[in-house]
Write a structure and sequence with these properties.
The chain is of the alpha+beta class and 356 residues long. The chain is built from 9 helices and 20 strands. The strands form 4 sheets. A 6-stranded mixed beta sheet has the order 6-7-8-3-9-10, sandwiched between helices. Helix 2 packs across helix 3 and helix 4 packs parallel to helix 5. The structure holds adenosine-5'-triphosphate. The site of adenosine-5'-triphosphate has 12 residues, from strand 2 and helix 1.
């Protein structure tokens, strides 16, 4: 089912939790709502579920305005951070619950319910634990039950609020795989809230980045990571180096240092170039005047990517670069060396681009 959020605003007293939010979600998408605490992600999810009213705007499901439709009639599956399983019911009964409580006319037969529940439990690899109670399961297993339970009623939309938030890193990773797997199987339009950028980049086909009740950017993981359209998105999605300077005639200058700016931008005295660590090029010799001299203060060698921390020679600022292990070996650099760095790709923002 497709979802349109049209100019939705929501106040809590005098606090604006959502400010004129509009989103188009196509049927079958797996969307991450990503943003810092308090940015309005949960509020938006609850409005979609019908658990919270809105002050302005409309919600459309498949083109129909459902703004005033009750939560029950919206046919939504919900998974929360804290496993809202029924403690006194077995795993099987938890998953079967939504089907068993249907009105008699819509209720599948006992056999049909059993088949459906067993199929779902097999899908989340919990078929052997059907008779256990939630207290006898690990956190990750409970969330898999919660996913199976939400899907049992064949929802048109699946909403997940920080579904893996309370779990440790390894289990989170495993559950991400489950979410992707279940999504591939059922193609239910799914929206999950997270403040974990890695989780959003890893799982979603599109990411909605929120900040202060507004949408900062909507795009594929590649788009929001590689082409952030605001300083906020740059900062929020991964590490970034800042090059402050004066923007003039297509160059960003600071002291002796000059960087060519790819796009044509108006002159400005307070511009900031944003450069991802993997876009920092390191040379051993100073080949040009568009490089900055920096001393290597730390080399982090774990894994295939080598992280290099550098201190600029011209000003008291630190930089972070990332190179492949192979390139690191070719460079033959070590802690304490003075090297020359050049941003391969940077995006320049001026103060007007910064939202408060
Ligand atoms: N019922 C409420 N009454 C008053 N203020 C509320 C209410 N619900 C949410 N808020 C406020 O609205 C803002 C947005 O909350 P929301 O839960 O949507 O943020 P979030 O992005 O999901 O944050 P988190 O990641 O911490 O869950 C917060 O500042 C919160 O304190």
């Amino acid at each position: 089912m497709s979802i349109q959020v049209q100019n939705v605003s929501k106040m809590f007293g005098s606090f604006q939790a959502l400010n004129n939010v509009s989103i188009d979600i196509e049927s079958g998408e797996l969307i991450a709502l990503l943003g810092p605490s308090g940015s309005g992600k949960t509020t938006l999810l609850r409005i979609l579920a019908g658990l919270e009213g809105l002050d302005e705007g409309a919600i459309l499901f498949d083109g129909h305005n459902i703004t005033n439709v009750s939560p029950k009639e919206r046919k939504i599956g919900f998974v929360f951070q804290h496993y809202a399983l029924f403690r006194h019911m077995t795993v099987f009964d938890n998953v079967a619950y939504g089907l068993k409580v249907r009105p008699r006319k819509e209720r599948p037969s006992k056999e049909e319910i059993a088949k459906k529940v067993n199929d779902l439990l097999a899908l989340v690899k919990l078929e052997n634990l059907a008779d256990r109670y939630p207290s006898q399961l690990s956190g990750g297993q409970r969330q898999r039950v919660a996913l199976a339970r939400a899907l049992a009623v064949e929802p048109k939309v699946l909403l997940l609020d920080e579904p893996f938030g309370a779990l440790d890193a390894k289990v989170r990773k495993e559950l991400r795989r489950w979410l992707r797997k279940l999504h591939n199987e059922f193609h239910v339009t799914s929206i999950f809230v997270t403040h974990d950028q890695e989780e959003a980049l890893d799982v979603a086909n599109r990411i909605i980045v929120m900040n202060n009740g507004k949408i900062e950017q909507v795009g594929t993981p590649e788009e929001v990571y590689e082409q952030p359209n605001s300083p906020f998105v740059y900062d929020f999605l991964g590490n970034v180096n800042l090059f402050k300077g004066r923007l003039h005639n297509g160059k960003l200058t600071h002291g002796q240092f000059e960087i060519n700016v790819p796009t044509h931008l108006d002159s400005h005295d307070d511009a900031i170039g944003y450069v991802r660590p993997h876009d920092i090029h390191i040379e051993k010799e100073n080949s040009n005047n568009d490089t900055v001299a920096a001393t290597i203060v730390h080399i982090h060698l774990l894994g295939p990517i080598v992280q290099i921390e550098l201190k600029r020679e011209d000003i008291d600022e630190y930089l972070e670069a990332e190179v492949t292990k192979e390139h690191y070996r070719e460079l033959g650099i070590k802690k304490g060396d003075v090297v020359y760095i050049r941003p391969k790709q940077l995006k320049v923002f001026v103060p007007e681009d910064f939202s408060i």
